[in-house]
Amino acid sequence: MARQRICSTAGIIFGLAVSCACQVALAAEPKRVMLLHSFGREFRPWSEYAKTIRNELGRQSPWPLEIVEHSLLMAEFRDENADLAFVDYLRALHTRHSLDLIISLGAPAAGFVQRHREQLFPITPMVLTAVERRRVQYSSLSENDVVVALVHDYPAVFENILRVLPDTKTVAVVNGKSSLEQFWEGELRREAKPFENRIAFKWYSELSFEDILKDAAALPPRSAILWELMSVDAVGVVHEGETALRRLYSVANAPIFSYLGGIFGQETVGGPMHSVIEGSRQTVAVAIRILEGEKAADIKVPAIGFATPQFNWREMQRWGIPESRLPPGSEIHFRDPTAWEQYRQQILALFALFLLQSALIGWLIYERRLRHLAEVRSRSSMAELTYMNRRAAAEQRSATLAHEVNQPLAGIATKASAALRWLRMEKPDLQKAEAALEGIADASHRASDIIASVRAMYKKEPPERVPIDINQIILTVLSIVRVELRQHRVDLQTQLDRHLPTVLGDKVQLQQVVLNLVTNAIEVMHSAQIRMLRVQTDQTNPGMVRVSIEDTGTGIDPSNVDRIFKPLFTTKAAGMGMGLAICRSIIESHGGRIWGTPAANQGSIFQFELPISTA
Length: 615
Fold this sequence. Notes:
Number of helices: 19
Helix content: 40-55%
Number of strands: 19
Number of domains: 5
CATH class of the largest domain: Alpha Beta
């Protein structure tokens, strides 16, 4: 008894396990859905419906989906033999793996599945969508069929054209010659009759598409074009709708209107039209209900009319249609955003950067002005100090200058007395008197040159740059300090290169540099046993003239090499610390450089370089 109870329990557990495994297997099985296109997978507007339906099914379906797509490539010609061959193909393809749902897109696909319902998939649920209700045979629908139908409101289309273009006199209707297109031309002609007293209609169904293009390019003023459909033209040429519309748009001289939301884009102006999103949303809602097990015949969907009017902003601009003419509540698409709308963040960032940059530039200008004023004050101070330095040097050398001028004056007096003596002789010696007078003239010129040179050196005038012989500058300075050299018992050695090129500079300023360096050299040798001043000029670097002034004084402390040219630095007890700073300022303003180094044995060497004159 216990054994039977155990066996019974094991059987129940095994059955539950098998049942759960089957349910898991069934749950993992994908739902198979077929999309049947009317003319082709890329034929608008139905291709837009298919794309939206696929996306919505994938987003809303709680099950894995396997979506297959087929197209009625011969739908334009209604070839019965082709229909039967396609039926056999579909039946053979899906016999082993049955379909859970069929969705037909457009009137040709709807007509095909209704004609071959029994031969094809008699019990498979079917949704007919993107089809106008006048193209559906409601009497032939089975209990497994449901229709998500559309309603074309042609009067609303004509009213829209006259609303946005009130001066319209001609409407050219683009339509093909297939049976489907002929059906809709009949409906159009019927519903257009109330407008014939306001509009002249041109029907393009009897023309080849090439002739349609020619006529559309030469339409009279105040015309409009209504795009209905173009799958087969009057001469039997098959056209892909989107390509045909683009070709028409490229040549038409009138705005193009259409109520098909699937082709709304660059080519058409807009107006009341079917919404692909709304139709697809309702189609997917019905499909989900059927896949959940609800019977198709129990699902009732009202026919879908036109959605909110939509307009193409670019075409409105092209044809001069103001927004005030649009129906209330219209949506405007493809509006070119303003620069502010499109690049708001970038504009704000650029504006902030501009403000920051402006503030920075303003601050830099302010700083530059302050620096300029400081430089002006510095140059003025330096010029004043330079002048004071010259005055001080003049005061210190007044005795030397007096001696220098006294020599030619004494010579003048001596030669004048001699000339008078030779002229007062009983027999005047005119030759000696003439020689004495010439000596007087030479001595006076020498005195004048000395005075002019010293005066120029110490006068306060703006600098003047001219080609200068640097050797002559040095000789002039040495002549000024000759007495001082003699008083301090300083031996002078000069080694001046006679072939030096001229330099471009201010004569007085360069004289001051040489005078400062020579005077410093004399002063530092005051306590030296050997007092030797060596002045040398040469051209060591291309384009530069070098002047070297070497003394045998106390030399330069290595720790002060980098400080000796700074203002207010001095090693003299009574020094101002400005002489060498002035020298560096003058040399650098001439485009040169100046430096000082300890000599090999004792003393120091001060050197400066100046660029040669290109004149």
